[in-house]
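3.2 Worked example (two chains)
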Amino acid sequence: TTTFSKCFCGVHNCKWLRLVLAYRKLHFFVQQISKLWSITQTYKSNENIMILLLQLNSLSIFLSDLDQLRKIKRRSPHDDTETFTVYLRSDVEAKSLEVWGSPEALARERKRRKEAEIKYRENLFRNQRLLWEYKEFFGNTKVRTFSSVWLGKNGLNFFFKLLAWVYTGSASMFSEAIHSLADTCNQALLALGISQSARTPDPSHPYGFTNMRYIASLISGVGIFMMGAGLSWYHGIIGLLHPHPVESLLWAYCILAGSLVSEGATLLVAINEIRRSARAKGLSFYQYVVQSRDPSTNVVLLEDAAAVLSVAVAATCMGLTSVTGNPYYDSVGSLGVGTLLGTVSAFLIYTNTEALLGRSIEPEQLQRLTELLESDPVVRAIHDVKATDMGMSKVRFKAEVDFDGRVVTRSYLEKQDIEQLLQEIQQVKTLEELEAFMLKHGENIVDMLGAEVDRLEKDLKVNLTVY
């Protein structure tokens, strides 16, 4: 991975653009091959039918050789293709023997194609590895840059505030330094949560890792409470019990002014981002924040809002100490900053806990989806409807659906030649012929039911607006 990254860092922009285009084409090609392979695996256990394309190669036959064979349409398990064509295995095996003339010639051709297939798969896996390395290097560049800016800003604030506290001995400045340290640690934690949430699902986590954002934000809230609020309260109480005079606060005021500018700028960025996202979801600013639709942005918003308020509180209390000479005001400022941090942490813990527990979507939206299903002719009744907001604009919808078998069967019959179907029925003379007839059309009706389920899922996705 390191060698690959260095190779990309030195290329010209034009070469990089061509490489990106080549990557997209390769990515599409790998997706299509993976899709075909998954379809093949679906029908691999059935000895009577076989999938076109991939299994044809293993039987050493070409697509043009199948023109005269019986074709069977099957419903595709993928959204972007409705049906695909399969053939009877016995027909294809007989045709392959006819094409190659003898079992020995057929065996030699199969061996040759098997070796070519192994080499092809090795190249395919090598390309997939290349795509993975490309994604690792380029995939989260924006997130890494954004997080690095936030980390650098909070780290510098912590360093200068710490110097000001060492120089002045101000309890309020100590609380501000601890606040910036907590923000720095939390930004690193949020960056980790964002990168983990972007991971693709695996067999152990079939629904993906989107909840990592909520988990990181929850830990962030606990960290703000323990590190920020706890230490600020402790230092403020110590200052009240054992007051001591503070030194010149001029440099402390300068550092607070710089912190106010940097924190205020990031606060405006967070506010604009939340307004844009809330407008896209049809929510108010308050609803978007309270429902924790984007936990990472909410943490940044609340941290920066608390930072701006805490700078104002610290500056006010330090100013009172400078004017009156009473160090108690400075200690009260430390307690005030700790209270702000405690409030922010409590809000973060509550909202992210609610999200992790599994929050239902809006009742109006759930009712609309229920009515959509109930109004469909193929649905007789629905029961036990549940819809959970999984975050990141994803909803898990579940319902027990009672399908109307007569409507499904009628939909199937509308696509058949009724006169030909009647002739097939009249030709049935034995129990074996009756069983074959029933199995043929029974399987087709089940496929029709699957197609109806796919259609309902598409309708739900079209009508689903994640708030």
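3.2.1 Second chain
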Amino acid sequence: MKVNLFNVTIFLGCFILFLLSLWNILKNSKKNRILHYFYAFLMTSALVIIMVLMFDFKIVKLYPWIVIFFLPFQYLTPIYFTAFICYYLKKEHIYHKNRVYLFIPFITFFALYTLLKVNVVLEYPWITRKVVTIIHTEIDENSALVFSIIISIWNYLIIRRYENAMGSYSFLQVKESTKWIKGLVFTFIVFNVLWLLTVILFFIRPDISGHFPYYPYWILYIIFYFTFLYHGNKHIHKINEEQSLENQQVQNAIEKFRIAGLHQIFAEEELKYIYQNPTEVTGILSYFATSLFDKNNMDDVLWDICENCIGQLQLEDCVIYYINANQMLIQKAAFGNKNDGERKILSPIQIPIGKGIVGNVALTGKYECINDVSKDGRYIMDDQTRRSELAVPIYLNQKIFGVLDSEHSQKDFFKEKDIQLFQLIAKLLEKKLTQLNTKNTSHITNDNVYFKELTFLMKEAKIYRDSNLSLERISKKLNISSNYLSQLVNKLSGGNFSDYVNSFRIEDAKHKLKDPKFTQYTIISIGLESGFNSKSTFYTAFKKHTGVSPKQYRQTP
């Protein structure tokens, strides 16, 4: 076929689309998987048409070696579109679960393409020219068409299942949230129908040959692709910004929850630092504060601080020194090489007050941060030589009680934030030790404040809608002790953690059962959307809290 205005326009359009998509893949591939598959879909779609046009332009005839780079991209395009939809809907596990099966057609035809290329180079020793032509013009195209239609229908079903399982919005809002992506799937189903009609045309009209009948179809494709490229890019960025804002709001609620329990522990200046560094500080302090709540003797308190310093701060070593009656600093608790795993210190050492870095901190009551201990003659080696050390005094009743000490094998390891954090941890330790000394049974944290903020988080962030929510998961999310969280909920809600979470789920379900916007929802779908993971748990919990079944509740005026 000769070069004409139609095929040149189509070729240039596809080539520009290919370059734009490739550039964006290289630019965004690591940042956003939605955009990655979005551009991969557009790029492979353009490559399919470019390959066909190279035959029309006689480029393949002039340069036969170019077919080495021809791949069955028509089998990749539906795969990338599926991946795009799954990531857009946050259902990427569906794509990963079925990825191997999705790539079977591509791998099959890749192997077939390779065989045909070798066969052509060797001048058709195994497969005749006629059979090669049939494979290329009929079997390949028809198989790609069938695969594309099947994938388009499957994509539509993925969206439908997503709508049925979505519980954050009303029925109308769910439809609105999927309108854009569903419109894309319908568009591609229409394009598949046009493709099918074009193939049928060749069977009805044997006198028609070449790729000219595809040109109007391809022009529509290109118009759609560039529209999709422009509006799709804007839409995806808008969705990402909204998601980022939503995540930030949840994170702010979590930070507020963490800070709320620290107000009665720290002074105004200390709280000012916490507010300035919420992400780095509040989670760790909140965990320490809640972890200490059930410790009733000094040994448990000191060991808990050491173990959690390592666990939360990723330190190599942590030792708490205690000043005994003989004014000697003895190692009372440790983590790292000094701990044999049974809360026993290996080869404990004693340091006189005023000797070494730790002894000097105990004498002066001021912290020491040594960036390179090899240049400090006061350094006393313990289990092994390290490069940097941070030692902070621990007070009790306005007197030096001991020293919180940590060493690291890296020079200049401890930063200003570590110094501040160690001082705050020492303050926490002082609060708890004071509580033990005065026989005060109240917790160092404010249970009522924590519970109030937890309830706010449930209501505003609606974390109860996560069917996999557990005591361990939420305590990890909030960075507080799971034991503390369990006892907090038991004490202030009058029930266990499961009953507490289910109470919010039941209220959510009750609202939906009476809301006209959810009349098209089945009872079980409402239960699942409210956070229950099965029909039986929903019905059992609902009847326990309300005294009636969900069906009876819905039918009651």
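3.3 Remarks
Residues 5-249 form one domain.
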